[in-house]
Design brief:
Blueprint: E1 11-15, H1 23-34, E2 40-44, H2 52-62, E3 71-75, E4 86-91, E5 96-100, H3 106-112, E6 114-119, H4 135-148, E7 172-173, E8 177-185, E9 191-196, H5 197-206, E10 212-216, E11 221-222, E12 236-240, E13 245-250, H6 255-259, E14 266-271
Parallel strand pairs: 1-2, 1-3, 3-5
Antiparallel strand pairs: 4-5, 4-6, 7-8, 8-9, 8-14, 9-13, 10-11, 10-14, 12-13
Helix pairs in contact: 1-4, 2-3
Length: 274
């Protein structure tokens, strides 16, 4: 019988490194040197610089659509070189996550069911010379590559009890309204708020037959549409996108530019009683 070939787990990468510099390419080079048969998939490298929240949301919306044993290598790390821990996480769903313990991995890892967490300390599974500013290259990429080759997480470092949670702002909910804020802006300029479809459904259930309108800071009142295409070109609208969160959009335009606001801008959904 022919020898059995080793099957490597795929590695999916998410960073805020952008597309101009060499950083992502170097990380892929490190991975290819250690696990040359591993499939490497780019989720995005366009996370806004240092935006842990945006990276965590993007990772949380992505991981379910990958093969079961995928290793997610995520680096949005404004605290690189500080006391924050470099970690790897194994989950009950099968996905593995590698990155800084700063909240970036928490939404996805908790949804997948955290099973085991280690601190990446073993010198055998990192580059020989480790910089204080590029852990993506020196610590995280090697760890992901070795995991892809089948190295157990326990070999990479000591176990730790939990991961750092991400503290997302919570909306204020009253009888006839939900007050939230923008927590994510996508590449189209859509403003995603921390208001769930369920919270809007509760409003409509409490006031049957009454419409719910949405207003964003510096903006006029708008309707909630099922999809962008239901609104005429140039119309401001609210809808529920792939995040299942309320987002403010402009048909064929950018809501971020139209309203001149960004992260933290107030969004209010309220029942129109008149």
């Amino acid at each position: 019988m022919p020898p059995r070939t080793q099957s490597y787990s795929p590695i999916a990468i998410l960073t805020d490194f952008g597309y101009r510099d060499h950083y992502v390419g170097v990380m892929k080079g490190v991975i290819a040197s250690i696990a040359p048969k591993a499939t490497i998939i780019d989720i995005t490298h366009g996370v806004p610089p240092q935006s842990i929240v945006a990276g965590a949301i993007a990772l949380g919306e992505s991981w379910r659509f990958f093969p079961k044993r995928t290793i997610f290598l995520a680096v949005v790390d404004p605290g690189v070189g500080t006391a924050r821990a470099p970690i790897a996480v194994e989950t009950r769903a099968g996905a593995r996550f590698v990155g800084p313990d700063n909240g970036l991995l928490s939404i996805a890892a908790e949804a997948a069911g955290v099973r085991h967490v280690v601190r990446l300390e073993s010198p055998r599974f990192r580059l020989a010379k480790t910089s204080s500013t590029f852990h993506g290259r020196d610590i995280f990429a090697p760890a992901a590559a070795f995991i892809a080759r089948g190295t157990p997480l326990a070999s990479l470092g000591p176990a730790i009890g939990s991961i750092q949670p991400l503290k997302l702002p919570k909306p204020a909910i009253s009888l006839d309204r939900v007050r939230g804020e923008v927590i994510y802006i996508d590449g189209y300029g859509n403003l995603v708020a921390n208001i769930t479809r369920e919270s809007i459904a509760r409003l409509t259930a409490s006031f049957p037959g009454k419409p719910v309108s949405v207003r964003i800071e510096n903006g006029a009142s708008m309707k909630i549409f099922n999809t962008y295409g239901d609104a005429p070109a140039g119309t401001i609208l609210a809808t529920f996108g792939s995040f299942e969160l309320l987002e403010i959009a402009v048909r064929d335009g950018s809501a971020a530019e139209r309203f001149g606001c960004g992260l933290g801008a107030t969004v209010v959904a309220r029942v129109t009683r008149a």
